[in-house]
Amino acid sequence: MPAQYVTGLVCPQCNKVYPLTTGDGLVIKITCDNELRQLRTGYNLDLIAQNIGREIIQSRPEDMWRYLELLSIAGDQKPETSLGTGFTPLIRADNLAKVLGVEELYLKDDTVTPTGSFKDRGVDVAVARAKELGYEIMACVSTGNLAKSTAAYAKEAGMKALIFVPIDIEKEKIAEIAQYNPILIGINGDYDAVNKLGGKISSEHPEIAFVNIDFRPYYGDGSKTMGFEIVEQLGWRAPADIVVPIGGALLTTKIGQSLQEFSYVGLINKANTRIHGAQGEGSSPVVNAILNGEKFVTPVTPNTIASSIAIGNPSNGIDALNVIKGSGGYAATANDYEIVNGMQLLEEKEGILSEEVGGVVVASAKKLIEQGKIPRDKGPVVLLITGRRHEAPDVSSNSGLTDIIGPHIEEFNELYESLETKLK
Ligand SMILES: *Cc1c(COP(=O)(O)O)cnc(C)c1O
Fold first, then answer.
1. Which residues contact 178 (CB under 8 A, 6 or more apart)?
2. Is the full-model pTM beyond 0.90?
3. From the alpha carbon of 117, which atom of ligand 1 is closest?
4. Mutate which of 112, 113, 119 for ligand 1 pocket (most atoms within 8 A of beta carbon)
5. CA distance 232 to 101
């Protein structure tokens, strides 16, 4: 959002507004003092409404920066650090539609982004924003896809990348991340332990820009573009139903926000899209809450082959729950067998090589259609296919990890000192 459109960081619960940066220019505020909820960037949508229109957007290059007014950088044009992210295909999937038994089915194909997952959208914005504020180190905690994306965009921006992953993520993913030469630290623990450690590092080291911690509002803003593009590609129509995979649950909330913003600024009428959530059966805290009619998300210990969304304690779980319920959507899970089946359907029927998460989405959509939660003939149904299949690694290569530590801040601080030369 070119500077004049920004109002600050806002609490989604009590609407309290915080300044974007502290006096010394470092972003530190992450959660609201009163509500302990994740903050998001706030926009002056009335002002944006006066300056945006379908023609203006359509006259711009086909990438996610065509929605610049609704993205959170101070600059007023596409950042130089962008790798040309976005405007991925929205595929009319008639073959798959027959199998699932719906009339009008589309796949939003984010397997073809620069590093192969929708994470590039959020990272594009977060890196541009960090660069703008003068940061030199980009970091993230990740199950793999965010790591790859952060490493790639940081490299393009001439910044150092400091990446934290659980040591047991797939070798394929480690090899893919290592291609971009980040400092790649394996943590002895699961994603939720890595995420907790990241929170501590972030508050002790304000000089590090964590894509999905202190820069989470910006990262989230990039994810909105998936929703914007779907609406534009449907001919400025909001879908009737949309199925979103849930990991940390930020994407779900941002799909909801994208539709609301588009209607608020007058690009479409009020959107009545039902937003449905999809998770792996062994890692479904948000779906459980929906199915059991609960108001809160109870953390679980993940166990699913869909490792990119194997998050037991999602940072935006409660927000996603509210978005899904508020939209009249529902939720479903897929077990490992159904996930593989879903991946095969995508490949055989539509030629898309998706990772496990796509299988979760297809299998969950199938159930929601069978249950009548997604009507067969009430308008466009869109499935988000968020990541490309990971390639088998070259067995001759070494692990690719720079170092391995336990999930403890003391261990990180010791390592950080020894990395000083690498980080200069
Ligand atoms: C991260 C990720 C998701 C989930 O996004 P969240 O915002 O964490 O819920 C879905 N699919 C893929 C491929 C991902 O990498």
1. 184, 397, 400
2. yes
3. 13
4. 119
5. 25
